[in-house]
Amino acid sequence: MSDAFLKHGPMNVVLTGWKNGAKAPYYPKAVANTRLVGRQIGLLVNLMVNVMGTKYDQVHLAGHSLGAHISGYAGAYLDGKIARITGLDPAGPFYEKYPTIVRLDKSDAKFVDAIHTNGAPLTHEGAGLQKISGHVDFYPNGGAFQPGCGDPVKGSLGQLFQGHLTGAEGVIACSHRRSYYFFTESINSVCPFTSYQCTDWDTFRRGECMDCSRGQCSQLGYHADQFNGTGKMYLQTLGASPYCGYQYRVTLTVADDSQGLVKIRVVGENGVSDVLELSEKPDKLHIQQPLQKIFITKKDLGDIKDVQVFYDRQERLLWGFVAGGDASLKLDTVTISTGEKKNAWTFSADQVEVTDDAWVSLVTKTTIKGADADLGPQFIG
């Protein structure tokens, strides 16, 4: 991370080494030491201000796991005068049920942002904190587990049964560490980690929050303080580095009720998306109830040229009879849209029928392109 900071621009980076106070497996002792380490960092910042001429509004603390709470203690010792604290998956055990006075919170700096990547219960191998910890809290991929990390319980148990203790630790820590990698990548990334204000992950996945028109969006990572979006923010990422991708919303409407599995593939001027399962089970498809979902691509697809739709009626034998959805799916429209830009491509199917177990391409479209949505001025106070 320090290399990424120095690549970004001229700045001084100070690293805190406290491994002797945080040795495994004595986690309770490490928790107890966080207050002392935080106070020492606070004393160092005061020294830099009083002797070296540093200003409080030039100081940005970033800490992972227990380091997030250490940063909070340092900020509290400095009466919240420093510019910013970034909490990278703040530690959950011993903090989840306690008030803000003993953990990172928005009073510890003028701007506090937190990235939650492993906020599952400890009984499910969660090491992070799900609670609101700052002015803006990011929950990539829902904030509990991260894509590409595998099943934390099955994976760690499998490694242990094979005698691979280090491998088990890696599986468990994968989601917890991902916050660090997200933030590091964001410092110099051309791809924006665009994040959307929403109440919860399921609502976001359904595409109900993908709107930046009122300045309620932000960007996960280093550039979060340049936006005025606050509260809980959600986004999708890719499962391997580089993690940042481009998020789209697909909305599909049908011309007649049906039932089955629907998949789509989007073709743009810059590439083709992976196949997206728009319905994860044989859903009932109603005229008045569109299918809608968020999907992510490795590159900006650019102008959308074509949408390909696949239908599977999920035919099966039941008591000697063939059961399943209709033999074909009658499409109405498919719309692909972006959130941070007011761009939308609506493909009119004109009641095109997609037969069972077949792909159909839609090329007749209406395009709405707008200027970038106003994400708001820099956050102040």
UniProtKB/TrEMBL annotation:
GO terms for cellular component: extracellular space. The keyword Secreted applies. Keywords: Secreted. InterPro entries: AB_hydrolase_fold, Lipase, Lipase_N, PLAT/LH2_dom_sf, TAG_lipase. It comes from the Eukaryota. One of its GO terms (biological process) is lipid catabolic process. SUPFAM superfamilies: alpha/beta-Hydrolases (SSF53474), Lipase/lipooxygenase domain (PLAT/LH2 domain) (SSF49723). The keyword Secreted applies. Residues 4-243 form the Lipase domain. It is found in: Secreted. GO terms for molecular function: lipase activity. Belongs to the AB hydrolase superfamily. Lipase family. PANTHER family: LIPASE. This is Pancreatic triacylglycerol lipase. The gene is LOC106168762.
